[in-house]
Amino acid sequence: MTETVKIQYLAAVSLLSVFIINILTPPEFVIDILYLCSIVLVFRQNIRTILYFSLTACVLIIINALFFDGEIKGSTSLWINRGISLVAIFITSYIAIHYRRQTQASTLKEQRYLKALEAMLFMTSHEVRKPVANILGLIETMGPNKTDLEIIDVQELFIHLQSSAHELDDFVKALNTFIEQTEKEHNQG
After folding, report:
1. Is the dihedral of CA 53, 58, 59, 64 positive or negative?
2. Domain span at 126
3. Which of 106, 136, 164 is a domain's end point?
4. Cβ-contact 26, 79 below 8 angstroms
């Protein structure tokens, strides 16, 4: 059983327990606010679950008021207390849903940022390797122990070295632009 399902069962048991306690408790002792426990339990669940438990809590409060508080149905304070409990549930639900949306947005933002970092690492490991390997190979070819190189060979090696250096420079510039853009997007969101 997943953690989400366990939490939902716990919240359902909480709703049922509060409903039974509410029925058994004299109406002048309003404990409807305890229905908030189930909403607090599902605070990190999806929006649908939060709404489901909030609406269930509201329905249970209304059922209790209409069918089990018969002796003081006309009491204004009873309906005011029940109304306050309903408003508290709506406010808590709104906060939970807003929190969930913020959490989802933050999670998506972090996932996009991590994907951008992965792309940057991939680019670095593959794009930098080629010109660096070329430069190292050319340096090896032109090493201090190579006395048999002619001027034409040196000029040709220099052209390849220059080309690889420019390729590496272009990549570093592109990488810097990519990093700046990624950081800008990450800090804006």
Report:
1. positive
2. 110-188
3. 106
4. no
